[in-house]
Design a protein that fits this description.
Elements lengths: L26 E2 L49 E2 L14 E2 L2 E3 L5 E13 L2 E8 L2 E2 L3 E5 L3 E9 L7 E3 L23 E7 L4 E6 L4 H4 L6 E6 L11 E10 L1 E2 L2 E2 L2 E2 L14 E4 L5 E7 L2 E8 L6 E5 L2 E8 L2 E9 L2 E3 L4 E8 L3 E13 L4 E18 L5 H4 L6 H8 L11 E9 L4 H7 L5 E2 L9 H6 L5 E6 L11 E5 L2 E9 L9 E5 L3 E7 L2 E2 L8 E4 L4 E8 L3 E7 L2 H5 L3 E7 L3
Parallel strand pairs: 3-7, 4-8, 5-9, 8-13, 14-20, 19-27, 28-32, 31-39
Antiparallel strand pairs: 1-29, 2-17, 5-6, 9-11, 10-12, 12-13, 14-18, 15-16, 20-25, 21-24, 21-26, 22-23, 22-25, 26-27, 28-30, 32-37, 33-36, 33-38, 34-35, 34-37, 38-39
């Protein structure tokens, strides 16, 4: 392996924008650590391979297919949205609209098939209300709305209101809070917005298909505190996603279970707000507040705003205690960040994804920079000059005061433990042999798919991603924790670097909020309330959960393919058991 400095700065407790960046070191798995792998099963033990396609996933530039894998295919049939439907009979999708809603308002939200043209190909995708992304819902904190959901897809579905401390029956999780809504069915959600912040809604059925194919939207919840937000000239949502395309269009998904089950599906077509060529126009001197959400299946981003200075002001569920200047914003799947950028000069400036990529087969790393969109800054000066406010790093005393009530718990013993690992069985012998070799390198964060062909042929039939409670030995849905309502719970999460394919995991707890207290023993000095935390390979993260919202809830990895292949558990917040 060649040694080089990554693009990203070293982690430091005073840099709250670096939750991913244990990735400055690279993990090499020692020899003799594969005893945990069970004997391979025959691939036809799970056969639903009739009609397996001849299409192959596109290879990233500079990567070659491993010799001997040319004839291998996933053990699932291929599947695409709207199979057998004439695209010309479907409505053409349109850019999304902002809906400002007040307490008691009602929204009809329909998930349906739409027609889109991407890379010159007409494809069938999904959309909420025929929009990409779904409607941007804008409300004030404390608002409750009614959402009448209509499923007009060709799959069962639900709506999960990610990050909201919502009433439990409306959390949208099949088998936990509701039955899946069948095609043609309807469901009514009562959605309460308890906390200011940036949130998003999406299905909780086959997210590897439904979210990827277009079912996602934002909610922005404004604080009622006058002057809480800095003055800006413009606000802009940025929902980051990626689609996997080949010469025939959208690359098929696995029909009965996920393919790309090891690393998750990485796309080769970047979309911002559903657009492959996102552009915005502003004036010289404008300050833009960006609301950034990662809705990809697996990809983490390192977002760089060229042309201006970047200030980080907020995370998932509200503001940081203190604003901070940042060179970039690393963001993992399902996380949200709020940043402000001032553009001093005229010109056209890119929004970049700037990362250190890996080729697993060769064991090499290389810089990778992709343009996500562009900002055109006209020479005309801004109508309102907010330079003075922008140049000031503000403290959020109300956030610090809220968190202060929990500081007495920071040094308490850990209450619960989780280990993140994987069990892989039954892949073709060539793949098993390669993955068991000592030439495979595993960085703490996978910024790209460094083994696309091997990843593609792995499915939910061979791969089982695992949340394990080491105190009981229970795994995944056999785990069920119970917390008394009002408890403050300290949870330690460790990502096992010695599993067969260790990978970073964004872990999401439904219905509650938490603080990230430390990463690898280094305390977090600038806090914000979160609902999703990235745990890099080999890292140990400690969170403090405010368990105040009663009900039975899900916790899981938010990489869509990892969730689909088992990486989830439940916990109950309620009276003492």
């Amino acid at each position: 392996m060649t040694s080089r400095s990554p693009f990203l700065p070293h982690p430091h407790p005073s840099r709250p924008w670096l939750p991913l960046l244990a990735a400055v070191s690279f993990a090499l798995r020692p020899a003799g650590l594969r005893a945990q792998q069970a004997a391979p099963k025959a691939r036809d033990a799970h056969s639903d391979t009739a009609g397996v396609m001849d299409r192959m996933p596109p290879m990233q530039k500079g990567m070659n297919m491993r010799l001997g894998l040319e004839s291998e295919r996933p053990s699932v049939q291929p599947w695409l949205p709207g199979q057998g439907v004439d695209p010309s009979t479907l409505p053409e999708a349109e850019p999304n609209h902002t809906i400002r809603m007040s307490d008691g308002d009602t929204l009809d939200l329909t998930a349906g098939l739409v027609r889109r043209t991407l890379r010159g190909k007409t494809v069938i995708m999904y959309a909420f209300n025929n929009q990409y992304p779904g409607p941007l819902i804008r409300v004030k904190r404390g608002t409750t709305i009614v959402v009448r959901f209509h499923n007009r897809l060709d799959l069962p579905s639900t709506v999960h209101w990610h990050g909201l401390r919502i009433d439990n029956p409306y959390d949208g999780v099949p088998g936990v809070t509701q039955d899946p809504v069948p095609p043609g069915g309807d469901f009514v959600y009562h959605v309460h917005f308890q906390d200011a912040g940036v949130y998003w809604y999406h299905p909780h059925v086959r997210g590897d298909i439904e979210i990827s194919a277009g079912l996602y939207g934002n909610e922005i919840v404004d604080s009622p505190i006058y002057g809480f937000n800095n003055p800006v000239n413009r606000e802009q949502q940025l929902m980051l996603s990626d689609l996997l395309f080949d010469k025939d269009g959208l690359f098929p998904y696995g029909k009965t279970t996920s393919d790309f089950a090891i690393m998750g599906r990485f796309g080769n077509l970047f979309l911002v707000n559903g657009e492959p060529d996102f552009r915005m126009k502003i004036h010289r001197g404008d300050v833009v507040r960006y609301y950034i959400t990662d809705v990809s299946s697996s990809r983490s981003y390192n977002v760089v705003f060229a042309g201006g200075r970047t200030k980080l002001v907020g995370a998932d569920m509200g503001a940081y205690e203190r604003e901070a200047w940042v060179p970039s914003i690393p963001i993992a799947v399902a996380q949200r960040y709020v940043a402000e950028v001032r553009y001093d000069s005229a010109g056209t400036f890119p929004i970049l994804n700037q990362v250190q990529a890996i080729n697993h087969v060769k064991g090499t790393f290389f810089p990778e920079v992709d343009t996500l969109g562009s900002v055109e800054v006209s020479p005309q000066p801004s109508d309102s000059d907010f330079a003075k406010s922008f140049a000031t790093l503000h403290d959020r005393d109300s956030v610090t005061a809220d968190i202060a009530r929990y500081r007495k718990y920071f040094d308490e013993p850990v209450d619960k433990h989780l280990e993140l690992t994987v069990n892989i069985q039954g892949l073709p012998g060539r793949v098993q042999t390669l993955m068991a070799s000592d030439t495979m390198y595993y960085p703490p964060v996978e910024w790209n798919d460094g083994m696309p062909k091997m990843n593609w042929i792995s499915t939910g039939h061979e791969v089982r991603w695992i949340l394990r409670d080491p105190d009981t030995g229970k795994e995944n849905m056999d785990i069920h924790w119970h917390f008394k309502t009002g408890s403050v719970v300290k949870i330690q999460i460790h990502n096992d670097p010695l599993s067969m394919h260790p990978m970073n995991h964004p872990i999401h707890f439904h219905g509650q909020r938490f603080l990230v207290l430390s990463r690898d023993g280094v305390p977090t000095e600038n806090l914000a309330w979160k609902d999703t935390v990235l745990v890099p390979v080999g890292s140990t993260v400690v969170i403090l959960m405010d368990a105040t919202n009663p009900g039975t809830w899900l916790a899981h990895c938010h990489i869509a393919e990892h969730l689909d292949t088992g990486m989830k558990m439940t916990f109950t917040v309620g009276p003492s058991p």
